[in-house]
Amino acid sequence: xxxxxxxxxxxxxxxxxxxxxxxxxxxxxxxxxxxxxxxxxxxxxxxxxxxxxxxxxxxxxxxxxxxxxxxxxxxxxxxxxxxxxxxxxxxxxxxxxxxxxxxxxxxxxxxxxxxxxxxxxxxxxxxxxxxxxxxxxxxxxxxxxxxxxxxxxxxxxxxxxxxxxxxxxxxxxxxxxxxxxxxxxxxxxxxxxxxxxxxxxxxxxxxx
Length: 208
Prior knowledge:
It comes from Gymnopus androsaceus JB14. The protein is mainly alpha-helical and 208 residues long.
């Protein structure tokens, strides 16, 4: 969530930050998205950019949310949704705690992946876009890593900081692969995965 706080306080150098008079012309070019020709601020990066990445990642997050069967349907994710993802989002302003927690995880983790892929594309890949298979693989790996972190955090060795088994189970209920065959308390089991899978043989370069 730290990156979301940084976005809220406009702490990142994106968009019009690069247009200050003190900036050299080559640095001012960073204000504009090479793919779309629009100001490359966080609204553009997270919700508008046409380069492969943000739209697919939100689609994947929405697919997992639909499997959860939450109280509200998935809809277009706005910058406000990202910045306010820590708040419960329902028509009645109430969500069961597990659903609310999954919403926060999906939005915050997906937004962070969009940001990191954008930086990798713009800097390391010199503007070359990622292909859909690589993006899907990265998202699936990210969300499975988050699931595994939740599972590990239920261990008693974390004492008062440990997550309650029931909280973790309810957070991920409905989203797991072969969930009907898992034990009632699957937090003691390794290898638990979400039911969305990626492609095969992700390219090392990450570009298409």
